[in-house]
């Protein structure tokens, strides 16, 4: 098939309509070939493969379950959240660590906003190698380590990618606050040194349930403490589906949780019911 003529270029472009690659969202999401076990494909609202060095974003409804999966053990998902209906309210990593009295993320951990509300709850975690302390990589840091950090380079910095995601949702670079990192662990030594614990291996995943409508941005790029001298980040699978029952289950058992979580949960319910 030639593209030397307008007709040939049109025919070539149309021939790509049903193509599936490892770096594109599937639209509609229900066409994703392997939905999660027990989840009907019609429930899927987001299905995408994000290669290393790329980013993605999506607006998710309240009561959505979001799954991130590290396919080969070298992905690192840097996550930011903003309220879709009030984007001045966003993920606050400091409070996400401080309020629950826990710096190490795993099942049950709330992701808190700067207004004391639960934006999402971490409901499943087979990795336990995450980081809420270092943030993502920067242009200067990646340039010093890898020789480049621009979005179009072979070693893009997380902050640069998240800034692009923000812009696509009507936000600005000023809205890119510190992020959470999934699938690359960090631990604090007795002297305060931050030490990389790396990945838990291929196939691990985390799942979040959203408490409010959210703008979700994910940059799949190297962690700031990645010990590898070369940029080598593998693919990240991103799936989301409607799961109001999962949110209702959290509400039904909220009295069994810590008082800090209960208050943040009620803050989210209060703002939602006042719409």
Task: Give a short summary of the structure.
It comes from Mycobacterium syngnathidarum. This protein has helices spanning 6-15, 93-98, 139-146, 158-167, 244-252, 259-273, and strands at 44-50, 54-60, 64-70, 77-83, 110-112, 118-125, 130-131, 180-182, 185-188, 194-198, 205-210, 214-220, 236-242.
List keywords for this structure.
single chain; 275 residues; alpha+beta; 6-stranded antiparallel β-sheet; 5-stranded antiparallel β-sheet; 21% helix; UAAP1; DUF1989; Urea carboxylase
- Structural domain count: 1
Please give the number of β-strands. 13
Strand content: 25-35%
Assign an overall shape.
Answer: globular
**Count of individual helical segments:** 6
Helix/strand structural class: alpha+beta
pLDDT < 50 runs, ≥5 residues: none
Q: Biggest sheet, in brief?
A: 6 strands, antiparallel
Order of helices and strands: HEEEEHEEEHHEEEEEEHH
* Spatial strand order of the main sheet: 1-13-3-11-6-5
Q: Round the mean pLDDT to the nearest integer and report it.
A: 96
- Through-space gap between termini: 55 Å
Question: Over the alpha carbons, how many angstroms does the gyration radius reach?
Answer: 19 Å
How much helical structure, as a percent, in the residues? 10-25%
InterPro entries: DUF1989 (IPR018959), UAAP1 (IPR017792)
Protein name: Urea carboxylase
Organism: Mycobacterium syngnathidarum
Pfam family, one: DUF1989
């Amino acid at each position: 098939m030639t593209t030397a003529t307008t007709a040939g270029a049109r025919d070539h472009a149309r021939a790509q309509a049903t193509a599936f690659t490892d770096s594109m969202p599937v639209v509609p999401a229900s066409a994703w070939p392997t939905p999660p076990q027990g989840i009907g494909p019609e429930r899927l609202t987001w299905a995408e493969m994000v290669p290393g060095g790329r980013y993605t974003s999506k607006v998710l409804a309240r009561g959505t379950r979001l799954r991130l999966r590290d396919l080969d053990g070298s992905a690192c998902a840097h996550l930011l959240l903003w309220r879709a209906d009030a984007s001045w309210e966003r993920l606050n990593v400091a409070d996400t660590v401080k309020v629950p009295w826990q710096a190490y993320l795993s099942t049950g951990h709330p992701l808190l906003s700067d207004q004391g509300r639960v934006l999402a709850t971490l409901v499943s975690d087979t990795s336990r190698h995450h980081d809420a302390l270092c943030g993502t990589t920067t242009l200067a840091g990646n340039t010093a380590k890898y020789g480049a950090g621009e979005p179009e380079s072979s070693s893009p910095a997380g902050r640069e990618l998240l800034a692009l995601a923000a812009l696509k949702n009507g936000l600005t670079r000023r809205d890119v606050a510190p992020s959470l990192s999934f699938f690359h662990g960090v631990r604090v030594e007795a002297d305060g040194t931050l030490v990389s614990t790396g990945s838990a291996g291929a196939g691990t995943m985390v799942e979040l349930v959203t408490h409010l409508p959210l703008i979700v941005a994910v940059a799949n790029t190297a962690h700031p403490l990645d010990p590898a001298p070369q940029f080598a980040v593998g693919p990240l699978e991103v799936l989301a589906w409607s799961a109001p029952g999962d949110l209702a289950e959290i509400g039904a058992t909220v009295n069994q949780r810590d008082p800090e979580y209960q208050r943040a949960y009620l803050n989210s319910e209060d703002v939602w019911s006042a719409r």
